[in-house]
Design goal:
globular, alpha+beta, 7 strands
Length: 167
Amino acid sequence: METTRTILRPYTQEDEDFLFHMLKAPEMMRYIGDGKTKDRDGTRRFLQWIMRAYAEDERNGLMIILHKDSGQRIGHAGLVPQIVEGQQEMEVGYWIWKEYWRKGYATEIAESLVRRGRERRISRLIALIHHENLPSISVAEKIGMVYEKEVVVNNKTVCLYALKIRD
């Protein structure tokens, strides 16, 4: 998948070090999962989780974001299956490396993921966002998502934003 400034490609085992650097950075993990950084074992488990999503459907899961000009890895994003309150949902997920924050990358990628969802005829997309993560809330709103409610996911209360893209 391509956007104006990025290319998204599946993770490989060779991306483990990059993933580890993201997962060990407190500023990256502040609003993700339990908010705690991960060690090497946690990184391996997270990478296995990503690979399992690919095995279920190669179109799903987090993918590496490459900057088109430099080829540098700048984060990951994708359509991620989630179970929320017993319902199967598809989440628009995006993590951008700190150096690229507030430059429009997350919005550009999220818009592309919404287009991908439409092409796949997914009826609804969500974003699960910590209530203090104002930049991610802004991205969700820019792509047309609206706040629906608070939900508990993995023992953490988050805001559920949703976008109905077809009936």
